[in-house]
Design brief:
- The protein is α+β, with helices and mostly antiparallel strands.
- Helices cover 26% and strands 44% of the residues.
- It contains 2 helices and 7 strands; from the N terminus they run ααβββββββ.
- Strands 1-4-3-2 form a 4-stranded antiparallel beta sheet, with no helix packed on it. A 3-stranded antiparallel beta sheet has the order 5-6-7, with helices on one face.
- Helix 1 packs across helix 2.
- It is elongated and about 75 Å long.
- The two termini are 30 Å apart.
């Protein structure tokens, strides 16, 4: 529920910023009411700075290479695991395996957020898993950081560790 409230707060700030921009273009500085003048100008400046800096920022691919030594001619298979299932969004992980003589060898992994992710960034840090054979299970440990952003500014970073099995 806290994730939903955070997303709503982010959405409200973004809509308020858009309202300020449109009204500023139409009416000029008359839109800044005296009681909200400082807050309105602050949100407007932060919003403009975020738009400018967003074009220069480099996105993290959230892709981790596990094994480089494998036969690239082997068949491969991808397994998906839901690491965390929330009301508003899920944290998903994909693991790509190379199939080598009845053994699954992990090659690479990626992780991403899915759903209403307004105000959040997911940074996939590490994964630890092992080879396994068909009809068996493999255990994994995945780590990452969930960043809570308010209007694009990181407010809080929450470290997350997930343990589970892959069938």
């Amino acid at each position: 529920m806290i994730y939903l409230i955070w997303s709503i707060i982010n959405g409200m700030i973004i809509f308020y910023f858009l309202y300020l921009i449109v009204e500023f273009i139409e009416k000029g500085k008359k839109i800044f009411k005296p009681q909200f003048k400082v807050i309105s100008i602050f949100i407007m400046i932060i919003g403009i700075v975020q738009i400018i800096s967003a074009s220069n920022s480099e996105k993290n691919s959230n892709r981790i290479t596990i094994t480089k030594d494998y036969n690239k001619k082997n068949d491969s298979k991808i397994k998906q695991v839901i690491l965390e299932d929330n009301l508003t969004f899920d944290i998903n992980m994909l693991i790509k395996y190379s199939i080598n003589q009845n053994e699954y060898i992990p090659i690479e992994s990626s992780s991403f957020l899915n759903g209403l992710v307004s105000g959040y960034d997911w940074e996939f840090k590490s994964i630890n898993t092992n080879n396994y054979k068909p009809n068996e299970k493999s255990e994994f440990t995945a780590n990452g950081i969930l960043k809570w952003n308010l209007f694009g500014i990181n407010i809080y970073s929450e470290s997350k560790t997930f343990n589970g099995t892959i069938e």
